[in-house]
Design goal:
The chain is α/β, with parallel strands linked by helices and about 400 residues long. The chain has helices spanning about 20-35, 50-60, 75-85, 105-115, 130-135, 155-160, 185-195, 225-230, 235-240, 255-270, 275-285, 290, 295-310, 335-345, 375-385; strands at about 35, 95-100, 120-125, 140-145, 165-175, 200-205, 230-235, 250, 315, 325, 350, 350-355, 365-370. Helix content is about 40%, strand content about 15%. The protein is globular, with a radius of gyration of 21 Å.
Length: about 400
């Protein structure tokens, strides 16, 4: 007689070390205590209504069915034109530009298409939390190389020492989340020289490409021929146009790389929201929308830093992205996670511990704050932080 109780088979986890993220934990704690949430790495303000109008117009025009797998041609052409203008590299829209369901999907797909079981991938820590799991899902081994403590600059001697015959790829992020540092032209050139004698693939996460401050340029991997020839360059419309929930990004890569990327892309998402692609293509005809982003966020950064200067928190440089890291060792001896919990409960501001971006959860008494918020949100947070 069959067992009358339905049975759910046990699964062996592909990612047994992954649990509830600190981001979810801190957001829930912020909600519980009515705290100003500066832990969330996305805006609390709306995008330009003109962008919504373009998407709505595309919907009304009946552009609601599947687009080509690699993306709407008009959007790929606009992306290629932007890259040529800003970085001097001409990508073929047909064979070298692919529209993705956000940057995280692009990162995973880039890894899955080039990393085989047993391959090693160098990841520079601290880093965005999807990098390691992406490599592990591909059967690869994550080789973690820390950025220099304090400055978060790349340690090229350590990177070179980590390269072995099994190294398949290296993942680089500039402007950098969480440290808000930006790789210089000299550092990118040093990376190009280091990789030139290898067959290592570069996965270059450049989602904050338009948020570089104080007149400094963003040095894209696309701008160095030696890197462009071996790179998946990844960016995000969500970050650039304040629409993180739309989950639309793109990948620039040589034709041979793009062909392999698309083999995986077609089976994990196939394609991306049609009317949003058309709306974005039309919106991109006005370059001011991305060219003005650095000034927009620099004003918020400066407002935030000026206010933080009146607290006992020590400000670290914020050269790019929309993050500000602070050293709280002058305020508390608590570990980073405990300090963030205390800060949320007692001061009413939520932050993210930097230790969350390291596999070993190393503690440096540094937390990350996000200033992609309305001015009134920032001022409210600053008023509370002045109590420190």
């Amino acid at each position: 007689m069959a067992d009358a109780t339905p049975r759910t088979p046990a699964l062996q986890s592909r990612l047994p070390q992954v649990g509830t993220t600190i981001f979810s934990v801190m957001s829930a704690l912020a909600h519980e205590h009515g705290a100003v949430n500066l832990g969330q790495g996305f805006p609390d303000f709306d995008c330009n209504p003109g962008l919504v109008d373009q998407v709505a117009a595309a919907m009304r025009e009946g552009l609601n069915q599947y687009p080509p797998m690699a993306g709407v041609p008009a959007l790929r052409e606009a992306i290629a034109a932007k890259a040529a203008t800003l970085y001097g590299h001409r990508y073929d829209p047909g064979s070298e530009v692919t529209v993705t369901a956000g940057a995280t999907q692009a990162i995973l797909t880039a890894v899955l298409c080039c990393v085989h079981p047993g391959d090693e991938v160098i990841v520079l820590e601290p880093c965005y939390d999807s990098y390691g799991p992406s490599v592990e899902l591909a059967g690869g081994t994550v080789v973690r190389v820390p950025l220099a403590p304090g400055s978060f600059a790349p340690d090229f001697a350590a990177i070179e020492a980590a390269i072995t015959p099994r190294t398949r790829a290296i993942m680089v992020n500039s402007p950098h989340n969480p440290s808000a540092t930006v790789w210089s032209a000299a550092q990118m050139q040093r990376l190009a020289e280091l990789l030139a004698r290898t067959d290592i693939v570069l996965i270059s996460d450049e989602v904050y490409e338009h948020m570089v401050y104080d007149g400094a340029p963003h040095v894209s991997a696309a701008s160095l021929p030696g890197l462009a020839a071996r790179s998946f360059v990844i960016s995000s419309f969500g970050k650039t146009y304040h629409v993180t929930g739309w989950k639309v990004g793109y990948v620039l890569a040589p034709a041979a790389f793009s062909a392999e990327f698309r083999k995986v892309h077609q089976f994990n998402v196939f394609t991306v929201n049609t009317p949003m692609q058309h709306g974005l293509a039309r919106y991109m005809t006005e370059p001011r929308h991305h060219l003005g982003l650095a000034a927009f966020y620099q004003r918020k950064r400066d407002l935030f830093r000026e206010g933080l200067a009146h607290t006992r928190l020590r400000l670290l440089p914020s050269q790019g992205s929309y993050f500000q890291c602070v050293d709280y060792s002058g305020v508390s001896a608590l570990g980073e996670v405990a300090f963030c919990e205390w800060l949320t409960r007692e001061i009413g501001v939520a932050a993210i511990p930097l230790s969350a971006f390291y596999a070993d959860n190393r503690d440096q008494h540094i937390v990350r704050l996000c200033f992609a918020k309305r001015d009134e949100t920032l001022r409210s947070a600053l008023e509370r932080l002045r109590r420190l």
